[in-house]
Amino acid sequence: MALYFKTIRSSSSGNCLALWTEKSHVLIDCGFNSQISCERALGVHLHDCPQPNAVVVTHNHVDHISYSSLRMLEKYGLPLRIHQDSVNQLQEKHFRGRTFNGLKLKPFSSDGFEVGQLRFQPINVPHQAQYPTYGFMIECRQKGLWYKVVVASDLYDGQALLDYLVDADFIYIESNHDPDLLSLYPNPNSRFHMSNPRTAELLYNARAKSKRMPRAVMLGHLSYIRNETMLALRSVRDVFRQAGRKLDYKIYVAPRYEASHKIAIIP
Fold it and tell me: What is the CATH T-level fold of the domain 3-266, as seen in this structure?
């Protein structure tokens, strides 16, 4: 049974990731600026895979969950999973006085939870202090073997992730900005996000500690003004080359405003 991943959106304008098997389907984040754009993007995506079992939210920034997205989740009866410590903030920031009585809100704890065949372990990562933020280690058992996916969208330090990245089968990780472009176009919020060199170093350290390579890695959440696809890729390649180690896995960059291609984690 196959396991697939793709991004539907991946930028500061909106984030939505998809992970699914033939029987289980999860969206990670659902940040859209209008109900129309949310419904259109998800409608196109759903031609490829089953109806989602749940939407799992990393944190309450508007590019990861929004009032418009909540309206669509309520409309289609999709359960929303968010950390129990973030529920009040979700209501205060995004409900806009609406009761959302039809929203299937199912908080999770730091102990983890399951959605169908997918087992989630939340990982608290450093981002903006007032917005508790979580990456996820997601495990899926197929044919007696466990496969591991790690997703981390918004963070500024990857140390808490490192051990989870070791021997992962697939990694989606933020590579937000290039330091030189940031110096040309300053943004104080960039300090809450991973630079290309920091992401590259994290990936190298994870590979150095791993017994086997991942099937693929995808870099995401690239800044429109302060990053470029080739700069993000070059940072990873440079770190591996300077350390005298071959970059032995496929590495992709998520498109900002449209869906990526589908990656088969388990063919």
Answer: Metallo-beta-lactamase; Chain A (3.60.15)
